[in-house]
Structure formats: C-alpha cells, structure tokens
Amino acid sequence: MRAVKRKRAYAAAKTGKKWRLRLYVMDETPTSLAAFANLKRICDDHLKGRYHITVIDLLKNPQLAKGDQILATPTVVRRLPVPVRTIIGSLSNLDQVLVGLDLRAGG
Amino acid sequence: MKKSPKPAPVAALLPKCPTGIHGLDEITGGGLPKGRPTLVCGGAGCGKTLLATEFLVRGAALYDEPGVLMAFEETEAELKANVASLGFDLAGLVRRKKIVIDYVHIEPGEIHESGEYDLEGLFVRLNYAIDSIGAKRVVLDTLEALFGGLRNETVLRAELRRLFRWLKVKGVTAVITAERGREQLTRHGLEEYVSDCVILLDHRVNDQIATRHMRVVKYRGALHGTNEFPFLIGSDGLSVLPITSLSLNHKVSRERIATGIPRLDSMLGGQGFFRGSSILLTGTPGTGKTIIAANFADAACKRGERVLFFSFEESPNQIIRNMHSIGLRLEPHVKSGLLRFHSARPSLYGLEMHLATIFKEILEFEPSVVIMDPITSLMDSGTSSEGKGMVTRLIDYLKAGQVTSLFTSLTQGGHSLEQSEAAMSSLMDSWLLLQNFVGNGERNRVLYVLKARGMAHSNQIREFLISDRGIDVVDAYIGPSGVLTGSARAAQTSLEKASVLASHQEAARRKRELERTRAALERQISGLRSEHEAGAEELRQIDEQVGTQTRLLNTERNELGRLRQADISLPSAARNHSGNGRGRL
Description:
The complex is a heterodimer of chains A (107) and B (585).
Chain A: H1 2-14, E1 19-25, H2 30-46, E2 51-57, E3 75-80, E4 85-88, H3 94-100
Parallel strand pairs in A: 1-2
Antiparallel strand pairs in A: 1-3, 3-4
Chain B: E1 16-17, H1 24-27, E2 32-33, E3 37-42, H2 48-62, E4 67-71, H3 76-84, H4 90-95, E5 99-103, E6 111-113, H5 120-133, E7 137-141, H6 145-149, H7 153-170, E8 173-179, E9 197-206, E10 209-219, E11 228-234, E12 237-240, E13 256-257, H8 262-267, E14 273-274, E15 278-283, H9 289-302, E16 307-311, H10 316-324, H11 331-335, E17 339-343, H12 351-365, E18 369-373, H13 375-379, H14 384-400, E19 404-410, H15 417-420, H16 422-425, E20 430-439, E21 442-452, E22 462-467, E23 470-475, E24 477-479, E25 482-484, H17 486-564, H18 571-577, H19 579-584
C-alpha cells in the first residue's frame, strides 16, 4: 500500500503537477533560516518551477500550529500532492528529506 | 485595633488546588500542589484519563478555573463522548470557553526527521490554548505518546524538562498522565522531571474481582495519606474512599421508629430504633433475619416512608412470595412505589461498583430506610478491609442523610457470634442477635439485643415464633436448668403444673398422717391418765388401811396397858419394845 502511494507520488514529481509546501518556523532563528534555505535548494533541484512554499512563523500566528498538528519546529508539511507528509528538523540531511518528501523512490 | 479574622500561619503552607474529586482532596489535604505539575501514573484502564479530565471539569465548573486538555491519545470527539457517560458536560464547557481541548495527533513512524529541531511547536500550541481562555489548569494526556512519534530521545528529554519548567513558570496546575513502567513508576521515566506530586493508580484483581486503588507516592512539602485507597468510577466520576479521614459530625435524631414487631420495640426501650441509626442483625442461617428485615420494611411503608431493599441472595419476587407465607404482604408497597427492591449477585461486579450502584440508587430513590440483606455476602466479594471500608463509607453516607439502615449479617456456624462480626459491629448503633437453640430434637429461634446505643434495652433472651400470622416474640423459659424454648418450654410449663399438683397431694397426705399420729398420741395420753388415776386411788386406799391399823394398834396397846396397869410409855420406846409384837401383827 505504502509502496503504491510512493510510486504515485514519485510519478507526480516526474509529471508536472504543482507542489504545495508549508514551512512552520519559530521566529527567524538560525535553525529556521537554515531550514528554509535547505528546502528551497532541494525544491529547486527536483521541482523546478512546480512548487510553492508558504513560510508560517508561529511566533506571529500561534493559532495555526493546531491545524497541521505541529509539534516541533521547524516542520515542513507537504500539502500537495496527497498524502500529507511531515518532516521535522533543519533539513540538513539531504537523503532523509528526499525520502521524507517522496522525491526518491525506495530508500 | 483591627484584627484579621484569620490567624497568620506560622509558615507559609504550600498552596493547594482543590480537585473536586470525592475523597482525593481529603487524602491530599486539600488538593494538588497549586501552580506545579503532578504526575498520575498507572497501567492501562486504571482511570488516569478520567482523573485528569475530572480535575479539569470540576475545576472549571466548581472553582471557576478554566483548563486546557492536551490529548495525545484520544480525539476531542472521543473524549467528549467518553466523559459524557459519567455525567460531565465537557462539550458544554468547551462551548462556554471554560475548557479548551487540543488533540495532538502523533502517528508513530509518520514523522520524518532531518537535522536538529525542538518542540517549540508544542509549546506554542499549549501557550496559545492557555492564553486563549486564561487557563489555570492543564492536563497532558498522555505525554509519553511523544516517545512513539519522535526518534531523537535526547532532544525529547531535554524538551520535556524544559516543558515542565515552563509549566511552573507559567503558574498553571498541571496533571501529566503516564503509563506504568515495569521497573519504575513510568515507562519513560517521567517521574524524573515531575518531582512535586506523584499519584499512582492501580487496578488489580483479587479472587477474580477487580478493584481500583490510588496511592499518593510523593507530595513534596505537604502531609498526605500514604495508604492505598480504593476508588471507584461511578456515574458521577471518580470517588476515592478515604476510610481514615471520614468525618463524624452528622446530625442525630431523637425520633424513634418502630420495628414492626411490638415486643421487639418493647425490648428496645419500648419505642424501637432511632431514626438514622445503623442496625445490625446477625444470625446463623435460617434464624429469620430476612423476616425481621421485611417486617421493618413493612412497618416503614405503613408509616408512608420509602424503603430501599438491597437483596444479594434472593430475587424480589422470591422475597415477596416468602413473606406472603407469614402473612406479610409487600406487593402493595411495591405497587404504591414506597418499597423498591434492588437485587444483584455479589459476584456480578467488584465492591467499588456495588458501592457506586448503591449510592446511585439511594440518591435517586431518597429512601428513609435502607435494608441490606445480607451485607456479609457483599463483603465477601472484597477483602475484609475493603469490605469494612465499604460499610464504613456506606453507613457514613446514610447517616449524613438521616437514613435508617438495617444490615443483616450471616454468621457461619463454628465461630463465636460476637467475634465474627467484630469488624463491622463497632460501626453499628444497634445490634440484634438471632440464634438457634437446638435440643430435644428440635430447633428454636431466639433473639436478644446485644447493644443499642443511647437507649435502655432489655437484657432478656426472647424466643420468637414464626407462624402464618407473622412474628411473635414470647418470653423464653428461664428456670434452674437454663433457658428453655419451644416444646421444651411448653413441657416445662406443664411439668411445673404437675409438680404443683403433686406437692398439693403430698401436703394433704402428710397432714392426714400427722393427724393420725396426733390422735394415737392422744389415745395413749388418755390411757396413761387413767392408769395414773388408778395408782392414785390405790395409794389412797393404802393410806386409809395404814391409818386404820395404827388406830387399831394404839387402841389395842392402850387396852393392854390398862389391863397390865402400866404407865403409857413414849411412842418411840413403845415401838422399840413392841417390835416383835408388831411383826406378828
């Protein structure tokens, strides 16, 4: 089941559907900035022109944390394509991010 | 000079936050430590979530302290539904903005980790929820779910430590629930971070019957009950039974109520029991405990009072039928709604559940008289100390409501009657003992009043007879050979009659004999008297003869002297000289 989903997502990455990503951060800390930079680089490498990142600062909008079940910061939530995927951390480990976002089959 | 109404405490006591949970505030001496986190740990299904939820609900409803419930295991809808069955209007409190529920969804293995992070997201959510309603209470249920979702335990532990510190700074009274661990109190060692108050819940099975227990393991800076207290989850939430902290200050009544058996009333100072007192009726099997209880119920119903009859061995219909056989009609009382039966097998559920059911029934029906028949079979479903605790709790509850309670208690043969009830008797105001007297090939029932606090009562043993007209208490025969009952009493009575008759006859016989003896003696006396008279006559005749002879002799002598011409000698000389002559005469 999971394998099927993963293939579909992988296919979505290859075909031209638009990705919607949300990055939840807490204030403009070095970790937050690093996470944004890492995410942008990965998206540029794999989803050039087909992605949209929304950055949400929970310090300013704490009420938004509940909706996407945010526990940790920073957190990236892949809203589209479904299913929703969540990766937490500064995204410094490239392989883990690619697996988490289904940008690499298998792993 | 102005004086403050309250004396200043010697040392600033730890402020406490009342939980509003029955009994918990009594064991903790006022509640949980205010503004500090409390850890509630226990195995699955022992009531952790319920305790935490009740803490919030009561806080919001009773103490006007809004609360935040951060749930990691159950969704908002599930929580609302779960506690609604316990009478908590969680949904209503949420609507009125007294409680905020934040469900934190963690699916183990679904969160990918890459690089460093912290749990600021959780803090933000909690902070936002607290500030949105000005919450004073926070519940985290069950925080340990985080360990399943996040792999980096080092970060997690550091963040948890920070969370508890943050809660303290925030000044909220927090309850954190955690699963019981094998070697330690909690599975992930949360007790390491929460050091102010730890409550352990336990659900254990004794003789196939489960009972919940609560223990305050630790309460920094405050006295607390260290015992294990049984608690129950009833229809109105959690209820801890703190046996040692029961208050003894209920109102007492001087009103007396009749037992339904006139002679029994007269044994109890002529007026029966005190209203609101607790009565124990002990006896071996078949001594008529249920019958006396039913009579008591009948008398109360006839006065127009409501009676709640808990039966643990017989069904209501069986009791009604059996009482019919002694002329006691209970079904009109049942029909008129004055008498209500509640029958349940003691083994149906644990002691705590029984107690909860009993409380609920009493609360609903508001009876004047409660009968438990028999209390012993109910007590057998727990350990003896639990049973005693339950009875204490029950009596206390009934007395507070001025409800007269009658407990029957079955005593097994072989024990001393008084001793076997030692656990319970001290709680009772009046104690009637029913006993079987076996002898002469029959069995008879007797009863006596062992104690009756606050009233003069008879010290006599009475026999009571059960016939188709009901109960009749009669005097037992007390004679030189002891107490006699039944046909022995009847036999003794006729024996006495016979012996009276016999003694009458005996007296008459002795009288006749005496008279005979007397008559014989009289006859003897008259014989002797005639003999005596005969003797006297003879004496007189002898005297006469002697006189005549002397006269004759003197005449003869004088004649002789005259004839011999001699002087008349002295009579003595004459006698000496005339010795031969007289002998010849």
